[in-house]
Amino acid sequence: MTGNAIAQTAVERGEYIVGGIAGCGNCHTPIGPDGFIMEQELAGRLVEKNEAFTAIAPNITPGSRIASWRDEDLVRAIREGLRPDGSLIGPPMPFTQYRGLSDTDVNAIVAFLRTVPAVESTVAVSEYRIPWQPIVGMRNRLVHAYFDIDADILWVAATQEVPALLPKLQALMSVD
Predict the structure, then answer these.
(1) Which residue, 5, 40, 18, 19, is CA-closest to 119?
(2) For the chain, which residues score pLDDT lower than 70?
(3) CA 129, CA 54: separation in Å to the nearest integer?
């Protein structure tokens, strides 16, 4: 990838962001014995495997399911970590960091992703062995629907579900 900060077109700007400051290829490009496999750029790979989860960065080239996503769907996935079906894109996708991207920059990313060579590849799906969906679901309710909070659900989460995670989180943090 090439690109520069003063790119002239949206695609050039998107290439600069994806290949530089956003670092999308760091997770989404397969790695071989000699480093990144650039012929499969953004085609997906295993990112992390630990006790809590196995994280797979999916293929984000036009050769994947995102080819059928609308631009708005890609923007939502980048900024909010949600797929078009409403399912969550889990860690390590840093959507909370991308939430503040300007409309110009996030649309430039989408424009660029539409132009990269399609790579046909099948990668596994992430697996979470902690209750990731409920944790994020609660966070989303607190952040986006705070006038519609069910106090009983909040109490159960705070007194039962979060404490149940503590041993798992401590085990993760103590791994050498």
Answers:
(1) 40
(2) 1-7, 132-151, 154, 175-176
(3) 8
